[in-house]
Amino acid sequence: MDHRDRPEGLAHCVLCDRPQRTEFPDYCAGCGGPVVLPPAPVALPATTESTGAWRYAGRLPISQETAWLSMGEGQTPLVSATSTRAWCATERLRYKLDHLNPSGSFKDRATAVGIAQAITQGAPAVVCASSGNAAGSTAAYAARAGLPSVVLVPEAVPPGKAAVAQAHGATVLRVRGDYSNSFQVARELAARLGWLNLTTTFVNPVAVSGLRSAGYELAEQLSEVPDWIVVPIGSGPLVHGIVTAYQELRAAGMHTELPRILGVQAHGCAPIVDAFDRDVERVTPWPTVSTRISAISDPLRGYPSDGTYTLRLVRETRGAMVAVRDAEAEEAAEALARDEGLLIESGAAANLAAVRTARDRGWIHQDELVVCMLTGHGIKTLAAAGRQEAPLVANTDDVIGQLPAHTTKAPEDLNDRVKR
Ligand SMILES: [Zn+2]
Asked: What EC number(s) does this enzyme carry (predicted)?
């Protein structure tokens, strides 16, 4: 079936349940709450001959007519952790490699569906506010669709992330202040010019529904429901996507459990963790952003109900929230790159630090199955890491002189390496 066959208005506000239209997406006109599409009624099988989001065309609001937009978003590998298991003090640790999406972040799951919406509705252009990853994603898919795109980023955006969007031909503008300022301008611009808003807070329920594919894939890749799924959180649409997917599968009788969500925020911008720790229902905006972990620094100013809804979802899964300090996230990113071969931005590597904290607090047990969503590639933020210039050599003797001592010894028994 095709979701376009559904009567209009089935999208609804998660706070007051009022039905909402989706052509000009915005927050609930009644209460300002986030708007989402309802769960798909049955867990239809994936369409194996289609690519990316269109594998789930029966469950997502897209039709095969726009399948040409796909760049293979989603369908990312799920791999076992090796050396970093010890770092996190957990035995059964898996990584979902969402940094391998076409534009280097999980945002492509939502953007593909959002750009299909823009094409189907005949939107003249698209706009998004972004801390950096959605910028590159929107610019890339808009380029493929032949649509103009404008991306609004905070003034402190990592230059590599702005450069990706510029390379795809987007108009990239830095808006003074933090992410919430960019968010507000994107919302006003979309309303004034009739452009489709692809900002990946909860502002566009059609685009956000694309994030369900992460949950569908995990259910296909694992023979059991993971005990925990660890998710970096700005406002939380990925939590909604994963939880909704598992709810649909549970409703279809495919399993009985929901995975518990461990939500991760930066210590210097943690409005949802704050409400979790204080054991209150309502999330309030974060006053002053103070973190280098730009990918998850969303103060929720003007749309705190996004956080309230996300916290409600985390609690429904019997999950938890953890704040991670900049240095911990950067140490985790180093460990992933050096010991695991995975180049991941700090906002996603923060997951590992959160797992370690949750282990310390006794929330996660050593033998539980833990999946970390590695949501963003590290290559876009690498230039900012201040690395030394590579030494210049002229010949082989120079090279030998530069090598670490242990690499020039006789090789160890190869079998020891293979068995690991
Ligand atoms: Zn409402």
From this structure: 4.2.3.1
Within a domain: 53: no
pLDDT tens figures, 154-200: 999 999 999 999 999 999 999 999 999 999 999 999 999 999 999 98
Specify if 257 maps to a domain: yes
CA of 20 to the centre of ligand 1 (A): 9
Cα-to-centroid distance, 292 and ligand 1 (Å): 34
Which pLDDT band, with edges at 50, 70 and 90, does 351 fall under? very high
CA 14 to ligand 1 centroid distance, Å: 7
User: What's the CATH code of the domain at 299?
Assistant: 3.40.50.1100
Q: How far apart are the CA of 6 and the centre of ligand 1, in A?
A: 21
Residue given tokens 């706070």 in the structure block: 15
What is the identity of the amino acid at 317? T
Among residues 149, 182, 145, the alpha carbon closest in space to that of 165 is found at 149
- Which has the closest alpha carbon to 335: 92, 89, 87? 87
Residue 371 CA to ligand 1 center (angstroms) comes to: 33
**Number of compact structural domains in the chain:** 1
Which domain, by its residues, includes 297?
78-104+208-382
